[in-house]
Task: inverse folding
């Protein structure tokens, strides 16, 4: 059974600081997804990482994928309050790309002014 | 263009009743997914359609749950003899081919009293 673990599950940080969210998964997969969810809202796609060593950046967020270590990171640079949300990583159930996703439990991020 | 839409946005029903939840995917997307999300958890995969057929229904929890997509576009998730434990947000997602980024709808919040 595929397991996806995120660390930490809760994070409170101050504006201007840097931090990293980690996502470990238990089976071989070349595809990893990061989503953002605001309270009471649906999921917004942030990044799709499709190969080992993939790195993508959007604004203050940068995601990377190491398929050999089965690890993805989401790095936040100089955090701002608007980035407060829950962040999920997800992996294809069978690693083939055309499957449902298995999600982590999410990282609830609060950024305080 | 229009995103994934789901109706109703909220559904309150009594234990033992039958409910139908509807998903209208992004036009042209051949793959459609159903997930459910309980409070404080990540989405849990239920079923995946490629065109009209269910390519993977391994996430359906039991035979009370059934989904159809008769014309390869709109899908309906059907739950018979609802139980209080079925209360959750049911999310629908679609993707262009099934091997790529999934776009989520706003969800249907189901409450079983």
Result:
């Amino acid at each position: 059974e595929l397991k996806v673990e995120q660390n930490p599950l809760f994070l409170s940080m101050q504006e201007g600081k840097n931090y990293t969210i980690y996502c470990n998964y238990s089976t071989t997969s070349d595809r990893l997804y990061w989503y953002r969810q605001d309270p009471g809202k649906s999921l917004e796609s942030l990044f799709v990482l499709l190969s080992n060593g993939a790195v993508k950046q959007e604004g203050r967020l940068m995601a990377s994928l190491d398929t050999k270590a089965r690890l993805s990171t989401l790095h936040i640079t100089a955090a701002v309050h608007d980035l407060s949300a829950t962040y999920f990583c997800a992996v294809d159930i069978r690693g083939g790309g055309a499957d449902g996703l298995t999600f982590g439990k999410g990282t609830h991020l609060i950024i305080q002014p | 263009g229009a995103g994934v839409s789901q109706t109703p946005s909220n559904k309150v029903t009594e234990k033992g009743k039958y409910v139908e939840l509807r998903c209208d995917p992004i036009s042209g997307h051949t793959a459609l997914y159903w997930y459910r999300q309980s409070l404080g958890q990540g989405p849990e995969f239920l079923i995946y359609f490629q065109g009209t057929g269910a390519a993977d229904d391994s996430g359906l929890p039991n035979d009370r749950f059934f989904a159809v997509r008769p014309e390869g576009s709109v899908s309906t998730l059907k739950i018979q003899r609802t139980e209080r434990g079925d209360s959750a947000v049911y999310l629908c997602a679609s993707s262009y081919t099934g091997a790529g980024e999934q776009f989520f709808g706003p969800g249907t919040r189901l409450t079983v009293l």
Observations:
- The mean pLDDT of chain B is 94.
- Chain B touches chain A at residues 31, 33, 35, 40-48, 50, 55-56, 59, 91, 93, 97-107 (CB under 8 Å).
